[in-house]
Amino acid sequence: MKTKATLKNISEMLQLSISTVSRALKDHPDIAEQTKKKVRELAEMMDYEPNAFAVYLRTNNSRLLGLIVPEISDYYYHSFIAAVEEEARARGYSLMILQSANDLATETANIRLCKLNRVAGILVALSGGERKDLSIFERLEESGIPVVFFDKVPDGKGFATVSQADEEAGQLAAASLLKKPRKKILAIFGNPDLSITRKRLRAFTATCKKLAPSTPVKILHAANRTEAFDATLHALSRKDRADALFCMSDEILSGAMKAVHRLRLSVPGSIGIISISNGFIPGLFNPEITYVETSGEKIGRKAFHEMLDRLIHQSMPREEILSARLVEGASL
Asked: What is the pTM of this model?
């Protein structure tokens, strides 16, 4: 079995002190460049890796970040994770990726797991459950573990948040949907307990009332793609069905489109469709679905840099909002 390389092994082979080897690997200015080069070359040849836990105990500086998402398989969160991982790796951080499955108990267990693993900070999108008590996150902040919420964020609690301009997205979607006269609109939103849902719902309905006050808008809620399929299928099976459909998210869009196909409705002939989306799901359909972009990749990079700012500069928590953008398909 190959012996794991240590600072002691390297120091003995080069006849240097352990402290000299350690400082050379950290690019310390007191160490000669020729010595640094010898140490680095031997460390690379021996596949030397620093003991992360020992480094933490010595410096009290963990390089591990916790990342909690509702659903890893969701394309939005997949692109978010990829962006954060790329940014973290480039700066010497590692990720512990956990899934809450939209369950509060699991989310709480994941937070405790992050603490047990001595993470430097936690990035989290709130689960679909109703978490009114945010004291668990307040205690994390008090213990020196910064929290950055993304996508599904709490309302005005003084935490660091990175999210889409949800009200702007709702307004833009409604205005785009109403460019053509509509007899009836079916709008499907997510969990009403989440601020992301409330903001998009408030903006969407207000814009509809302003631009087309006489057009009926039926509001439904769905917690997942299965509920979205059932709700859409039932609503569009009626004789007085809607001729316009709005979906609040990719998860809802995928369920709703399954119902549209089941009923053999032509798009946009029988029904016009628009969604708020990360961009991947709309491209799977023919015609492609028009959507208001919410980019997991952009949110991920922004969230990581917000975390980095809090870790390095101890910056105060702030609200970061990315503006909305319409991407036109052929579904309206």
From this structure: 0.76
Tell me the domain boundaries of the chain: 7-50, 62-164+296-322, 166-293
Which of 128, 123, 122, 86 is CA-nearest to residue 103?
Answer: 128
Q: DSSP alpha helices (H): ranges in the chain?
A: 7-14, 18-25, 33-45, 52-59, 75-90, 104-116, 135-142, 166-177, 195-211, 225-236, 250-262, 296-313
The CATH class of the 62-164+296-322 domain is alpha beta
Q: How many CB atoms lie within 10 A of CB 110?
A: 24
pLDDT digits (tens, 9 = 90+) for 265-290: 999 999 999 999 999 999 999 999 99
Let me know: does 160 contact 185? Beta carbons within 8 Å.
Answer: no
Question: Which pLDDT tens digit goes with each residue over 91-138?
Answer: 889 999 999 998 999 999 999 999 988 899 999 999 876 677 889 999
* Architecture of domain 166-293 in this structure: 3-Layer(aba) Sandwich (3.40)
Give 147-194 as a DSSP string. Answer: EEEESS--SSSS-EEEEE-HHHHHHHHHHHHTTS--S-EEEEE--TTS
Q: Is 79 helix (H, G, I), strand (E, B) or coil?
A: helix
